Amino acid sequence: KAGVTQTPRYLIKTRGQQVTLSCSPISGHRSVSWYQQTPGQGLQFLFEYFSETQRNKGNFPGRFSGRQFSNSRSEMNVSTLELGDSALYLCASSPQGGLADTQYFGPGTRLTVL
Amino acid sequence: QKEVEQNSGPLSVPEGAIASLNCTYSDRGSQSFFWYRQYSGKSPELIMSIYSNGDKEDGRFTAQLNKASQYVSLLIRDSQPSDSATYLCAVTLTGTASKLTFGTGTRLQVTL
């Protein structure tokens, strides 16, 4: 099976702009979770989508949003970018997002905000 | 107190030795535990998952879980230079099945 794919792999934006990141889960996986990784804060959970519904949300401002399509592909949007949004954004997919499910990570999108 | 704690390291072990990586968590109701390996510039990849008390072995890797002590560890036998990476402990806290809470990771260096 193909793994989780994320596009684009690298992005450079300036403060105030907005950005959209895309994630295609492993075939058959219906749960997609998004994480932000920074050197200072480590890996932090943003939100999880299952069957086109946000099922879980982390402690990030409303500038961070997402959605999921009927084919389980997911997008994440960050509006009004700040310097502190520079990070590696990772998405992970799992079959159902259940307790015993393993989350498999994509290669990530490296976002740099200037 | 952080929800998931790991020693940041670096932990340095000679090639062929056993590397022992430790993780403690604060939520007694946590049920799922994962070890991920992350090479510099890459995304995390799953090493082991463990859900019940005791040991779970997979090749050179053994995960150990002690829910009473709220402690999970990863042993790497016959460490190789290719094992040099950051090891992330991840836990699903009570009521958050789809959300992984990560420790800050332990950097392992396997020396020749």
Describe this entry's structure for a reader.
The complex is a heterodimer of chains A (114) and B (112). Chain A has 114 residues and is mainly beta. Chain A has strands spanning 5-7, 10-13, 19-24, 31-38, 42-50, 53-57, 64-68, 74-78, 87-94, 104-105, 109-113. In chain A, the strands form two sheets. In chain A, strands 2, 4, 5, 6, 9, 10 and 11 form a seven-stranded mixed sheet that branches. A four-stranded antiparallel sheet of chain A has the order 1-3-8-7, with no helix packed on it. In chain A, strand 5 and strand 6 (53-57) form a beta hairpin. Chain A is globular and about 35 Å long. Chain A starts with a strand and ends with a strand. Chain B is mostly beta strands. Helices cover 0% and strands 53% of the residues of chain B. Chain B starts with a strand and ends with a strand. In chain B, strands 2, 4, 5, 9, 10 and 11 form a six-stranded mixed sheet that branches. A five-stranded antiparallel sheet of chain B has the order 1-3-8-7-6, with no helix packed on it. The radius of gyration of chain B is 13 Å and the shape is globular. Chain B has no helices and eleven strands. The model of chain B has no long low-confidence stretch (mean pLDDT 94). The A-B interface holds A 31, 33, 35, 42-45, 48, 50, 55-56, 58, 88, 90, 92, 94, 97-108 and B 31-32, 34, 36, 42-46, 49, 51, 88, 90, 92, 96-105.
Estimated share of beta-strand residues of chain B: over 45%
Main sheet record of chain B: 6 strands, mixed
Bulk shape of chain A: globular
Q: Please count the beta strands of chain A (DSSP E, at least 2 residues each).
A: 11
String of helices and strands of chain A: EEEEEEEEEEE
Radius of gyration of chain A: 13 Å
- Helix segment tally of chain B: 0
Structural class of chain A: mainly beta
Share of residues in helices of chain A: under 10%
Most extensive contact: A-B, 28 and 24 residues
In one word, what is the shape of chain B? globular
Assembly level: heterodimer
Mean pLDDT across the residues of chain A is 95
DSSP summary, beta strand count of chain B: 11
State the separation between the terminal residues of chain B, measured CA to CA.
36 Å
Give the C-alpha Rg of chain B.
13 Å
Q: Roughly what percent helix of chain B?
A: under 10%
